[in-house]
């Protein structure tokens, strides 16, 4: 590995999105970036789909073979509040990253100029405010497929940082073994996971991945409640069925040995700060380097079919 800067000061933002409202969501995001900058954060990480929120529990009127007009209306509101990448919102986020002099990672619902397809996307800005990274979720999970399309490009990018290569897999992409290998092959030392998983099984997963990749795992989840949904949606019965707390959070940082640097934070908004020891990454790979000395390319082959 190249020489790594000794420490990285991370601000891991566990916060409540402003559901279905990109303008207010952006405003809240910019305020949180300012707060993290005051604590000298060098890397600021937000959860999956923070703008304009994760529509947990909603069907948008889809059933097998049919859909309804009210669901289409709600989907259109979500579509209208998804953002272009690049676009006005990313320009504002880039300026905020530059003012903070920090790398910024955030999950968004992306729409594109060429079609009406949405993508579950993670974007990263460098400290100069440049949009240097766009990763679309390879395969939306389950019923997510009626909202977001499969990634059609931008599969496994990484960002060259002072702390080594940094990349992300979104939520259940991390259950795809070969997707993880793709990041390991690119030498990630910081593995960012924007997600909406607040269960015990996920916590077992993230510790395994940190050990498997001998990298820092940044588990970025959000906290939101039933009352955070807009009151004027056309599916009140779907919202009413949700738990009062829809997503409990659980954001945390795991080191390359599978130990918590910061314990999971539950049931509240919080910016989690940590100074992580980047020299632990090469040190941890002394006896196990998944795509280095512990690989067997003579009997096991991995290749990128399309970048």
How would you characterize this protein structure?
This protein has helices at residues 22-38, 69-80, 88-100, 177-185, 200-213, 236-240, 280-284, and strands at residues 7-14, 43-45, 83-84, 103-111, 118-125, 131-136, 159-161, 164-168, 188-194, 216-220, 223-225, 245-254, 260-266, 270-277. Strands 1, 2, 3, 4, 5, 6 and 14 form a seven-stranded mixed β-sheet that branches. Strands 7, 8, 9, 10, 11, 12 and 13 form a seven-stranded mixed β-sheet that branches. α1 (22-38) runs parallel beside α3 (88-100). With 307 residues, it is α/β, with parallel strands linked by helices. The chain is globular. The chain has seven helices and 14 strands.
Q: Output the number of helix runs.
A: 7
Class computed from helices, strands and strand pairing = alpha/beta
Poorly predicted ranges: none
Q: Tell me the helix content.
A: 10-25%
Oligomer: single chain
**Overall 3D form:** globular
Query: How much of the residues is beta strand, in percent?
Result: 25-35%
What gyration radius follows from the Cα positions, in whole Å?
A: 19 Å
Largest sheet: 7 strands, mixed
* SSE pattern, N- to C-terminal: EHEHEHEEEEEHEHEEHEEEH
Distance between the termini: 22 Å
Mean pLDDT: 96
Give the strand tally: 14
């Amino acid at each position: 590995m190249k020489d790594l800067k000794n420490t990285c000061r991370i601000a891991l933002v566990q916060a409540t999105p402003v559901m279905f409202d990109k303008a207010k969501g952006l405003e809240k995001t910019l305020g949180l970036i300012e707060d993290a900058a005051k604590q000298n954060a060098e890397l600021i990480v937000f959860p999956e789909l923070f703008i304009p929120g994760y529509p947990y529990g909603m069907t948008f009127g889809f059933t097998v073979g049919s859909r309804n007009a009210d669901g289409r209306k709600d989907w259109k509101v979500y579509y209208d509040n998804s953002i272009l990448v690049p676009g006005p919102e990313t320009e504002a986020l880039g300026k905020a990253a530059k003012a903070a002099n920090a790398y910024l990672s955030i999950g968004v619902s992306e729409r594109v100029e060429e079609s009406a397809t949405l993508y579950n996307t993670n974007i990263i800005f460098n400290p100069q405010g440049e949009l240097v990274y766009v990763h679309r979720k390879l395969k939306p999970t389950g019923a997510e497929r009626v909202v977001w399309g499969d990634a059609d490009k931008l599969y496994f990018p990484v960002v060259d940082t002072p702390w080594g290569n940094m990349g992300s897999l979104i939520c259940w992409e991390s259950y795809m073994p070969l997707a993880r290998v793709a990041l390991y092959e690119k030498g990630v030392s910081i593995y960012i996971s924007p997600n909406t998983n607040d269960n015990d099984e996920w916590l077992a997963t993230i510790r395994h991945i940190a050990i498997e990749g001998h990298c820092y795992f940044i588990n970025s989840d959000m906290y939101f409640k039933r009352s955070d949904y807009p009151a004027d949606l056309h599916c009140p019965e779907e919202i009413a069925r949700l738990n009062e707390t829809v997503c409990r959070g659980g954001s945390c940082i795991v080191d390359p040995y599978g130990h918590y640097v910061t314990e999971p934070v539950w049931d509240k908004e919080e910016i989690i700060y940590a100074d992580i020891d980047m020299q632990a990454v090469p040190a941890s790979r002394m006896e196990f380097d998944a795509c280095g000395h512990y690989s067997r390319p003579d009997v096991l082959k991995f290749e990128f079919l399309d970048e």
